Task: inverse folding
């Protein structure tokens, strides 16, 4: 599959998608996305489905109404390949399909996992759509599955930072520094019960991320030059709750939709006040 290049109507924004993965978002020639090969993470974005979080805590086993399934951290969806469904000048849509109980090779085995194969006891279809406007990039997720199928969903994009620890993540209730996120470690920093978060910088474009259907975020990085800002349906590391508790799972309606809107913006007042 050739990379897809999306161009906004005003020609000021360019998005590159490789095998369904968002690998570049240029706004007025400024790169907003963490680049593969740079320090921090080997990817630019991915999805977490049908589970989020520490499956090693349950010996990689997830309990469902249809029996147990083996899942590695953040699920098996990332082990599947996208097929291009449609594309145009400023949009593209990709799809992954899974047949219940099909064994999927686990790329983390044997270095980081004891399970060579993963599986899930339900069929599902997962569609990822992109639409680039003059102002923003909208990313949609549509999941078709049997009604009642339990699942967790997370989107895991990585954004480029300056490397000098100057950025701040801001919601109506919180301001979180890069150092504080790094101190949170591998479990990621939770920002719960909110549908919008802003990445505020001292130069270049700030970024607003608004969501529909997620209601929570996780923030993760181990380096100051990139930050993963991850919309999630549930935070999996809740103290006092058992790993992969059934309370964390959303139940399928047969067809469910989720949305993330990434909007670059400049606001000198915000920058001067918070930095």
Result:
């Amino acid at each position: 599959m050739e990379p897809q290049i999306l161009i906004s109507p005003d020609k000021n924004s360019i998005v590159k998608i490789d095998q369904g993965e968002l690998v570049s978002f240029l706004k007025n020639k400024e790169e907003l996305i963490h680049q593969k090969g740079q320090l921090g993470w080997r990817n630019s974005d991915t999805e977490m489905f049908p589970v989020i979080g520490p499956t090693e805590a349950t010996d990689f086993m997830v309990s469902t109404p249809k029996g147990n399934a083996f899942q590695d951290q953040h699920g098996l969806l990332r082990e599947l390949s996208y097929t291009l469904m449609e594309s145009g000048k400023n949009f593209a849509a990709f799809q992954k399909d899974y047949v219940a109980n099909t064994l999927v090779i686990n790329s983390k085995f044997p270095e980081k996992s004891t399970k060579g194969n993963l599986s899930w006891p339900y069929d599902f279809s997962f569609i990822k759509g992109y639409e680039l406007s003059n102002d923003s990039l909208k990313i949609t997720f549509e999941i078709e599955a049997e009604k009642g199928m339990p699942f967790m969903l997370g989107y895991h994009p990585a954004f480029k930072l300056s490397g000098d620890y100057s950025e701040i993540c801001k919601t109506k209730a919180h301001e979180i520094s890069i150092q504080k996120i790094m101190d949170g470690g591998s479990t990621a920093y939770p920002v719960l019960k909110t549908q919008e978060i802003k990445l505020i910088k001292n130069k270049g474009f700030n970024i607003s991320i608004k969501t529909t259907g997620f209601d929570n975020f996780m923030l993760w990085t181990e380096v100051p030059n990139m930050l993963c800002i991850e919309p999630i349906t549930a935070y999996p590391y809740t103290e006092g709750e058992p790993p992969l508790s059934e309370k964390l799972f959303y139940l399928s309606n047969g067809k469910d939709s989720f949305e993330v809107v990434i909007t670059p913006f400049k606001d000198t007042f915000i920058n001067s006040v918070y930095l």
Summary: DSSP finds two helices and 25 strands in the chain. Residues 202 and 275 are 6 Å apart (CA to CA).
